[in-house]
Specification:
Layout (H helix, E strand, L loop, with lengths): L9 H12 L3 H4 L3 H26 L7 H4 L19 E7 L10 E7 L3 E7 L4 H13 L1 H9 L3 H5 L21 H4 L4 E7 L9 H20 L2 H17 L1
Antiparallel strand pairs: 1-2, 2-3, 3-4
Helix pairs in contact: 1-3, 3-9, 5-6, 6-9
């Protein structure tokens, strides 16, 4: 694959490394232009390039590139760690028409120390999780085929995510896929050599893993558009009362 992104500039990665050692407003504010030019702008270019590739295998996850990129500012309201800035740059890709944190999505993050690529369902409301579990219970073999197929494990590793200790309500304890049904998170997480961030290799490595995750993502999200429509209809009916 001919890369459409040359890699993050060394100045940008050096900025993130220095930010980790000087995580305060006094240091960041006079250097904000470096972040904008050497970190955020290259990230915008990378996300734009990824969207062009995703039109092939995940067109429903393509949207406005700037909205995919997370802010550098940390939400410290409920955290003991009061440092104001993240020391990485990250982006997420959610299925159009579904809530950002209520469906399966793609994610990657780059810092001076690591590159993370992930995807799946991490946080989910009870009704969303139940719909996904029911989809798995109805066809566990089809679900497993989306991530146990040849070649995918090499790129993605093992299925990850926490599970509940008891079978969820409404699901038989002896269901042949009960271990999958008991999960409350369905995701993949992998890392690249951090040195890749400054090279043209970064772009195709992300694309390969996103494409490998595409069938898995579609399986998880398949029941959710219908659920979302029902919720919107119920809200409209409630507001009309």
């Amino acid at each position: 694959m001919k890369t459409a992104f040359p890699g993050f500039p060394h100045e940008g990665l050096a900025f993130l490394k220095d930010l980790a050692a000087n995580n305060d407003r006094e240091w960041f504010t006079p250097r904000k232009h470096i972040f904008e030019e050497q970190v955020r702008q290259p990230m915008l270019e990378l996300v734009t390039a990824l969207h062009k590739e995703m039109l092939r295998f995940a067109p429903a996850y393509v949207g406005e590139p700037s909205k995919c990129i997370f802010r550098i500012y940390r939400d410290t309201r409920f955290s003991k760690d009061k440092t104001p800035y993240k020391t990485h740059i990250a982006a997420a890709f959610w299925r159009n028409g579904l809530e950002k944190n209520g469906s399966a999505g793609y994610y990657f993050a780059v810092s001076a120390k690591e590159i993370e690529i992930a995807g799946g369902l991490y946080f989910a409301e009870p009704d969303v999780l139940r719909a996904v579990r029911q989809r798995i219970a109805d066809d566990p073999e089809a679900f497993e085929s989306t991530w146990r197929a040849r070649g995918r494990k090499t790129l993605l590793g093992d299925l990850q995510g926490a599970s509940v200790t008891r079978p969820p309500r409404g699901f038989a304890p002896d269901h042949p896929a009960i271990d999958l049904i008991k999960r409350k998170q369905y995701c993949f997480f992998c890392q690249l050599d951090p040195a890749t961030a400054a090279t043209p290799k970064l772009f195709p490595e992300i694309v390969k893993r996103f494409e490998a995750m595409a069938p898995f993502m579609e399986f998880l999200n398949a029941p959710l558009p219908g659920l979302a429509r029902k919720k919107r209809s119920a809200n409209l009916e409630a507001s009309a009362l």
